[in-house]
Amino acid sequence: MGCSDIDMIDDMDNLIEIVRQAAKEGALLLYTLADPSMAEATKKACDLWGVPCTDVLRPTIDAIASHIGVAPSGISRSSASRKGQLSEDYFQRIEAIDFTIKQDDGAQPQNLARAHIVLVGVSRTGKTPLSIYLAQKGYKVANVPIVMGIDLPKALFEIDQDKIFGLTINPVVLQAIRKTRANTLGFHGQKSNYAEMEHVRQELDHANQIFVRHPTWPRSLEKL
């Protein structure tokens, strides 16, 4: 059993890479992040990749803040504000991350028009990690799941269709991801078609039928 100590994390790219590495190694992630948006993004990424995690200092910080009646600033000692005024870009990225987290997995469809990018796809196609990555670049991102038997939100078809991106994936890869996710959640051995190939193909076929009706959706993000 080993232990790694990583400090001075103030970039979402580095944070996501740490979570991915923890998932690969089957590690427990203990973190202390002053920025609430970074902390929430870490929790979301850990939930996505099945990494057990704990925000070590948050209960203590919240207790102190409640006791003295002052909200924590969310600014770390190494942040730009310790060296000078925070840039407009910094605040835009924080706002984008906050928006993106709140719009995860189809939440608050009434806000889709406010998003710069909307990702759609079946479960486990990488909508959430891609959303968080793009948010760190300053994009406000919403993601909407495609689920058989459930209509997509009406608001999705009322917004600018050029900002909607449909995510596709190889069925074999998707099945492997779902099997890993099911095992992480303790579903191994339980009766479920979530990771069965027939069901995976049916879901992807259903998504592809939607994409055929909306041909601008499945395209490369590099076209942004």
TrEMBL record:
Pfam families: Kinase-PPPase (PF03618). Transmembrane segments: none annotated. InterPro entries: Kinase-pyrophosphorylase (IPR005177). It comes from the Eukaryota. GO terms for molecular function: ATP binding; protein serine/threonine kinase activity. Keywords: Kinase, Nucleotide-binding, Serine/threonine-protein kinase, Transferase. This is Pyruvate, phosphate dikinase regulatory protein, chloroplastic. It comes from Aegilops tauschii subsp. strangulata.
